[in-house]
Design goal:
The complex is a heterodimer of chains A (399) and B (274).
Chain A: E1 5-9, H1 13-21, E2 26-30, H2 45-57, E3 61-66, H3 78-88, E4 92-95, H4 98-107, E5 112-115, H5 124-131, E6 137-139, H6 146-156, E7 159-166, H7 178-183, E8 200-202, E9 205-209, E10 215-217, H8 222-228, E11 232-235, H9 242-260, H10 266-279, E12 284-285, E13 311-319, E14 324-329, E15 333-334, E16 338-343, E17 346-352, E18 356-358, E19 363-364, E20 366-367, E21 373-377, E22 387-390
Parallel strand pairs in A: 1-2, 1-11, 2-3, 3-4, 4-5, 5-6, 6-7, 7-11, 10-12
Antiparallel strand pairs in A: 7-10, 8-9, 13-14, 13-22, 14-21, 15-20, 16-17, 16-22, 18-19, 18-21
Helix pairs in contact in A: 1-2, 1-9, 3-4, 5-6, 6-8, 9-10
Chain B: H1 3-9, E1 11-15, E2 30-35, E3 57-61, H2 67-78, E4 85-90, H3 93-102, E5 107-110, H4 119-125, E6 131-132, H5 140-149, E7 154-160, E8 163-167, H6 171-178, E9 186-191, E10 196-203, E11 206-211, E12 214-216, E13 225-231, H7 237-244, E14 253-254
Parallel strand pairs in B: 1-2, 1-13, 2-3, 3-4, 4-5, 5-6, 7-13, 12-14
Antiparallel strand pairs in B: 7-12, 8-11, 9-10, 10-11
Helix pairs in contact in B: 2-3
Classes of the chains: A alpha/beta (399), B alpha/beta (274).
Chain lengths: 399, 274
C-alpha cells in the first residue's frame, strides 16, 4: 500500500501548528498573494519559513496554494515569488493556471507541483495532459466518483488527492464567476463572495430559495478511497478556527490509524461521525462519491447555521507535581459540568469539574470570560495544545 | 473598421442554438459550432455527429468529462467519418489528449472561458492548440494586450450569452422535486440584492447559469483575431442577423466586464512585495 497522507488547512501559523500537532501529515496554506482566500490572514514569507521549519522538524510537509487564475497584472511578481518559496523550502505548490506549471518547469525550482481542484479534473486523459507538464499530484474535482478515482490512478500513476471533509461549491471549482457578476469580486482570484449561498427566485414560484450544497463528509469511505488509490485526504477549511481543525483532524487521524491497523469498527465510525457532526455548523453528506447528489444534498430555504460553543478551553501548561492544568477559557463552564479533554497524545477522557481556580489560586464557581486563565486539578497528564470541550458522546471502549 | 468590413475580413463562429441559423452558412464567413449530444451542457439542443451536415463545422464539447464519457468520445472520434467536422472546441484538456493520442487531424480550439485571462497562459495553451477563446472575465485593455502579444490569432467573443456558473448538479430538477413543481429544463433566476438575472439550463450532465444579458463586444477590432465567437442562445435568426450586421440591440445586451474591472482584495494596497 502506498503511503497515505492526511492533509489539513492552515489559515495562519497558529492553525498550521494545531493541524500538524493534531495528526496531519501535511498542511496547505497561502502566502499573501496568489491564493484563493485573498482575504484570509495567510502567511508572510517569514511566517511561512517558520511554518516550514516547524513542519519539517516533525517530518511533515507544507504545500502552498498558488492557485488563482492570473490576469496579466498579477503575473509580474510570479517568478520572484516562486523563487522565494523555493528558498524557504516548501514541499509543493498547488496550482491551477498553466502559467504557473510552465514557469516552475522553466525556473528549475525544487518543489513539486500539484494540480489544484480548480482545474476540475475528472478523467484520466486530462490528468495525463497535466502529467506532461511535470506535475506529481492531481487534486481531483470534488465531483469525482470512486470509480473515476480508481481509473485515474491506474492510468496515470500520479499521486491522487481528494477532498474528504468541509464546505462544497455548488459549481465545479474554477467554473463559477457569479461573484464577479453580483459583487464585482473575482472568484478565481480569491474574492469569492459565495453567491451560490445567496437566495434566488423564479417568477411566480414560491419564495426565494438557495442552491447551497450541504458539506462534504467522507469519513465512512476512507477505506474504500485508500483501496481506490487515493494518496492524500484533504480537509477543507483555511478560515476555520483551531477547535474545528483540531477536532476534525484528530478524528481523521484516529480513523486512519484504526484502518491501517485493521481495527476500525462500525461503532468507531459512528462515534467519530457524531463528533464531526457536532463540530460542524452545517449538515454533511458524501456528495458525489457514489452517486449524483440530488435534492437531499443541498439546502433550499433558510438553513440553520449553528454556532458551536463546545470549545471550553485550551491547555497552556500542566504541572505534573501538583497535577494542575493551566487553561485559557473559551466558553462558559461551571462547577459540576462534565467535560472531555482531548489532544493528539492523550486518549479522550471525561472529567467532572469539581474545583476551578483563577490565576492566583483563588476559587471560582464559573469560568465565564473568554481567554481568562484558570486552573483545574486533573489527575491525567495533559499537554500544551490539548483542549477541553463539552462532553457530548461516550467514546466506544478500546479493543 | 465598420462591422460590415469586419464581416468581409473575419470569420464568425456561431453556436447552433436554432436550426434556422444554418441558412446563414451561405455567407462563407460564418462557421458553426455544434453542441454535441452527450458531451455538451447548457444548450437545449444537441447534435449527433451524423446530424452535422454543414461543411467546415466544429464540435462544441463544453462538458467536464468523467472517464466513461472520455472513453466513449474517444471511440466516436476514432470512427468519425463526417468530413463536415473540421475541428473541436473544448474546455476539458482530456479532449486535447485523446485527439493527440489518436493522431486525428482536427483543428483544436481551447474554450475554457475562465482560464484564458492572461497572455502568458494563452501562449502556453497555444503550444498545444490552434487557437484559444479569450476570456470574458477581463477588461478591454486586458483583451487588447492579449491580442497584441498572443503568438497565434485568437477567438474573441463578439456577442454571446456567457456562462457564469457550471455545476454538475441538476439544480433545476432538485429544486422542482423539492417543491413538487412542473419539470422545466430552463428557468430565469433572479438575485435580488445585486439585481442580476441568470438563465439556468439543465440537462443530464449538469446545469449552466448564463448571465442573462448578452455581452456585446462587437467593437473589439484587431488583426490578430481568427474568429469572432457568437453564442446566440435564445435569439431568433432575424436578431442574429442584426447582431452580425452591427445593428444596435441595446435592450438585451451589455458590455460585460469590458469596462468593469473586478477586484479580489477587500483591503486595497496589499500585495507581493519583494
Amino acid at each position: 500500500m502506498e503511503k497515505v497522507e492526511l492533509l489539513a488547512p492552515a489559515g495562519d501559523l497558529e492553525r498550521l501548528k494545531f493541524s500538524l500537532l493534531y495528526g496531519a501529515d501535511a498542511v496547505y496554506c497561502a502566502g499573501k498573494v496568489y491564493g484563493l482566500r485573498a482575504n484570509a490572514n495567510n502567511f508572510s514569507l517569514e511566517e511561512m519559513e517558520e511554518g516550514v521549519t516547524f513542519a519539517h522538524r516533525l517530518g511533515k510537509k507544507v504545500y502552498v496554494t498558488v492557485n488563482i487564475l492570473f490576469h496579466d497584472e498579477e503575473t509580474k511578481g510570479l517568478d520572484d515569488y516562486l523563487k522565494a518559496l523555493d528558498r524557504i523550502g516548501i514541499d509543493a505548490i498547488i496550482a491551477s493556471d498553466i502559467l504557473v506549471m510552465k514557469r516552475v518547469l522553466e525556473l528549475g525550482v525544487k518543489f513539486e507541483v500539484h494540480v489544484s481542484t480548480q482545474a476540475s479534473i475528472l478523467n484520466k486523459e486530462a490528468a495525463l495532459f497535466y502529467k506532461t507538464l511535470g506535475v506529481t499530484r492531481i487534486v481531483l474535482a470534488r465531483e469525482a466518483s470512486l470509480e473515476d478515482i480508481k481509473e485515474i490512478k491506474k492510468a496515470t500513476g500520479l499521486e491522487i488527492e481528494c477532498f474528504v471533509h468541509g464546505a462544497m461549491c455548488t459549481s465545479f471549482s474554477g467554473r463559477c464567476v457569479l461573484s464577479n457578476y453580483c459583487t464585482n469580486r473575482d472568484s478565481n482570484r480569491g474574492g469569492c463572495a459565495q453567491i451560490c449561498r445567496w437566495m434566488f427566485s423564479i417568477d411566480d414560484v414560491l419564495e426565494p430559495f438557495s442552491m447551497t450544497p450541504k458539506d462534504l463528509n467522507l469519513i465512512q469511505y476512507i477505506s474504500r478511497m485508500i483501496d481506490a488509490g487515493v494518496n492524500s485526504f484533504k480537509v477543507e477549511g483555511r478560515m476555520r478556527g483551531i477547535y474545528y481543525i483540531a477536532t476534525v483532524i484528530l478524528v481523521y487521524r484516529r480513523v486512519f490509524d484504526l484502518i491501517l491497523t485493521n481495527n476500525l469498527r462500525d461503532c468507531d465510525v459512528q462515534y467519530y461521525l457524531g463528533v464531526l457532526n457536532r463540530v460542524a455548523n452545517r449538515e454533511s453528506t458524501a456528495q458525489f462519491i457514489e452517486h449524483l447528489p440530488g435534492k437531499e444534498e443541498q439546502y433550499f430555504l433558510g438553513r440553520e447555521e449553528v454556532s458551536n460553543q463546545d470549545f471550553l478551553g485550551l491547555v497552556l501548561s500542566y504541572d505534573e507535581e501538583s497535577r494542575m492544568a493551566t487553561i485559557e477559557e473559551r466558553n462558559y463552564f461551571q462547577l459540576g459540568d462534565v467535560v472531555q479533554f482531548f489532544g493528539p497524545s492523550i486518549e479522550t477522557f471525561s472529567y467532572q469539574v469539581q474545583e476551578i481556580f483563577d490565576e492566583n489560586g483563588e476559587p471560582l464557581e464559573v469560568a465565564n470570560h473568554p481567554k481568562m486563565i484558570i486552573k483545574l486539578k486533573v489527575n491525567t497528564k495533559l499537554h500544551p495544545y490539548d483542549m477541553m470541550r463539552i462532553k457530548v458522546f461516550d467514546k466506544p471502549n478500546l479493543l | 473598421m465598420l462591422v460590415e468590413e469586419k464581416m468581409k475580413t473575419n470569420n464568425f463562429l456561431v453556436v447552433v442554438t436554432d436550426l434556422e441559423f444554418l441558412d446563414l452558412n451561405v455567407n462563407s464567413s460564418i462557421h458553426f459550432l455544434f453542441p454535441v449530444l452527450g458531451y455538451s451542457v447548457g444548450f437545449p439542443k444537441t447534435f449527433s455527429f451524423a446530424e452535422i451536415k454543414v461543411p467546415h463545422s466544429y464540435l462544441y464539447i463544453n462538458r467536464i468529462l468523467e472517464n466513461e464519457s472520455i472513453e466513449t468520445l474517444k471511440k466516436k472520434l476514432m470512427s468519425c467519418s463526417n468530413e463536415n467536422i473540421v475541428g473541436i472546441c473544448f474546455s476539458d484538456l482530456g479532449v486535447y489528449q485523446i485527439v493527440k493520442e489518436l493522431g486525428l487531424n482536427f483543428q483544436l480550439f481551447y474554450m475554457q472561458n475562465h482560464s484564458t485571462t492572461n497572455v502568458h497562459s494563452i501562449n502556453y495553451y497555444l503550444e498545444y492548440v490552434d487557437s484559444v477563446l479569450v476570456s470574458t472575465d477581463i477588461t478591454r485593455e486586458e483583451i487588447d494586450a492579449i491580442l497584441h502579444h498572443a503568438s497565434k490569432p485568437l477567438i474573441v467573443p463578439f456577442f454571446a450569452l456567457v456562462d457564469a456558473m457550471y455545476s454538475r448538479r441538476k439544480l433545476l430538477s432538485n429544486f422542482q422535486e423539492e417543491f413538487e413543481l412542473e419539470k422545466k429544463c430552463e428557468e430565469v433566476l433572479h438575485e435580488s440584492i445585486s439585481q442580476n438575472e441568470f438563465r439556468a439550463i439543465e440537462n443530464e450532465y449538469g446545469t449552466i447559469l448564463y448571465a442573462n444579458k448578452y455581452i456585446d463586444y462587437r467593437n473589439i477590432i484587431h488583426p490578430n483575431i481568427l474568429y469572432y465567437y457568437i453564442n446566440p442562445l435564445g435569439l431568433d435568426k432575424k436578431t442574429l442577423l442584426k447582431v452580425i450586421q452591427g445593428e444596435e440591440i441595446l435592450e438585451i445586451c451589455d458590455s460585460g466586464f469590458l469596462d468593469r474591472k473586478t477586484y479580489y482584495r477587500l483591503k486595497e494596497g496589499e500585495g507581493w512585495k519583494k
